Amino acid sequence: MKPRPSRIVLAPMRPGDLSMDAQSHKAQMHDAEILDQFTRQAEPFARRHAHSNDELLQQMVDCAAVGPDDRVLDVACGPGVVSCFFAKRVRHVTGLDLVPAMLEKARTFQAEQNLANVTWKLGSCTDLPFAGETFDCVVTRFSFHHFLDPGIALREMKRVAKPGGTILVCDVAPDEETQESFNRWELLRDPSHTRALTGQELEELGRAAGLELPRRSHCSLASDLENLLAGSFPKPGYAEKIRALFDEETQAGTNRLGVAARRTEGRILIAYPMVLLAWRKPKPGN
Ligand SMILES: C[S@@+](CC[C@H](N)C(=O)[O-])C[C@H]1O[C@@H](n2cnc3c(N)ncnc32)[C@H](O)[C@@H]1O
Fold it and tell me: What pLDDT shows up at residue 18?
């Protein structure tokens, strides 16, 4: 007997169905890119950052103004550098990340530091697996420029913070003039990059989320282009494109790429402009 063709019933399309599908497809594709990039970057990233940038970490602690009784959440914790630094100064830290390979690095780093007051959680910044009003302080570093919608992440960070608690974002923040070219070359270097916001745009996100901004600070983060490229996994041919852009930049003496690139003894040194914003979640009635 010939098999009968199965009947496919098409549900009528409602307005918005397609765009919801397109959005969730985009989000899934981006999560897959994050997973791929940061599984590969876990080892070099942990090596580069585990024992460096103590000044920036101290600046984060100062800006967050945490105390010994505080419970802290580190969103997109990567190899746990920020989490472990905070853990030495507070009661407990939870580190959350989307990528298992990063959390593996974080566990190793925690063991090396002999810290018992840290726990690790797999999850996404868009849907934090915690009850509302759980943490005294919620922090994140070097992450907003990887998020498709940093506004959602900030609102989630606010939700899980206690009233009166602190939400600290530390990220690269190019100025308005260089933002576009900065984002272009960073996307060449790291396909999981979305968009670095300016300091003003980040502040606006906080206002839109209903947060108060009692403290903010700036600094720059020095790096060496070749070291950076050695720990990155750009598409074939893109590393050469980036080198050509920086050759042109340093020869012309311009700052179009937004990282104050300069050539010294054959090396190209760069400085990422960083911003730290410490918001307060208002208490009810305030
Ligand atoms: C550049 S690393 C920064 C790691 C760490 N915050 C630090 O400063 O050392 C970015 C991290 O963001 C994580 N990440 C990206 N998108 C995420 C998401 N949607 N939810 C949770 N983590 C995410 C990546 O897996 C990666 O570990």
Answer: 56
Three-class SS state of 136 = strand
Which of the residue ranges 15-29, 45-59, 200-214, 249-263 would you say has the lowest mean pLDDT? 15-29
The reply to whether 93 falls in a domain is: yes
Among residues of the chain, what percentage have pLDDT more than 70? 93
How many domains, the chain? 1
d(CA 34, CA 277): 24
Residue 234: phi and psi, rounded to 5, are -75, 165
Q: Is 46 in the pocket of ligand 1 (CB under 6 A)?
A: no
* 3-state secondary structure (DSSP) of residue 3: coil
Range of the domain at 143: 27-174+192-221+273-280
- Asked if residues 79 and 145 have their Cβ atoms less than 8 Å apart, the reply is no
Q: What is the pLDDT of residues 104-145, one digit of tens each?
A: 999 999 999 999 999 999 999 999 999 999 999 999 999 999
The ligand 1 atom nearest the CA atom of 78: 27
> CB of 186 closer than 6 A to ligand 1?
no
- How far apart CA 275 and CA 172 sit, in angstroms, is 6
The answer to whether residue 12 is domain-embedded is no
Position 267 in a domain: no
Which residue owns the Cα nearest ligand 1 atom 20? 124
Cβ–ligand 1 distance for 232 under 6 Å, the answer no
CATH code: domain of residue 36: 3.40.50.150
Distance 70 CA to ligand 1 centre (A): 22
Residue 128 placed within a domain: yes
